[in-house]
Amino acid sequence: MQLGTEATVAVGTPDTVLVSTAAAGTAQVVFEDDGTTGYFYAVAPGPETTMLDALHVYDVADVADRHIPVAVQLFWTVGETGAALVINGHCHALYDFQRRAGFCRNAFPPAPHGQVPKRELTDELVEQYFGA
Questions:
Q1: Does the pLDDT at position 113 exceed 70?
Q2: CB count, 10 Å around CB of 31?
Q3: Which of 32, 56, 57, 108 has the lowest tally of Cβ within 10 angstroms?
């Protein structure tokens, strides 16, 4: 796996945004904390940016230790066909650009039409993509 970008952030800080673009420029992932929720987005960049998926990561109100800053990292698979959101060493969301399939720990929101029906991110799935 390849590190795309990383930062230390305070959960619940509005306008927190981390972006990582694949080297070829054909895929992009974004982590956003708007002060209320944290989301991981898969994007097809271009003249007209296309949102491929939005994966819920957390509700700020439900994060017990939100006063403690966290390490946020965006990783790419070898070949940059998939990307993951890792917070404090734990994978919270993953997007497969080849399959156009997104996964997160709480499987929310439901998969867009045409995607794999099961969206729950498991440790086994993380192992499959990243061998971690």
A1: no
A2: 26
A3: 108
Closest to 71 (Cα-Cα) out of 57, 85, 88, 84: 88
Look up the pTM and report it.
0.92
d(CA 27, CA 81): 8
CA gap 87, 104 in Å, rounded: 13
The C-alpha atoms of residue 102 and residue 113 are separated, in whole angstroms, by 12
Return contacts of 76-79, CB within 8 angstroms, 24+ apart: 76/1, 76/2, 76/3, 76/4, 76/20, 76/22, 77/1, 77/2, 77/129, 77/130, 78/1, 78/2
Domain ranges within the chain, ordered by starting residue: 2-130
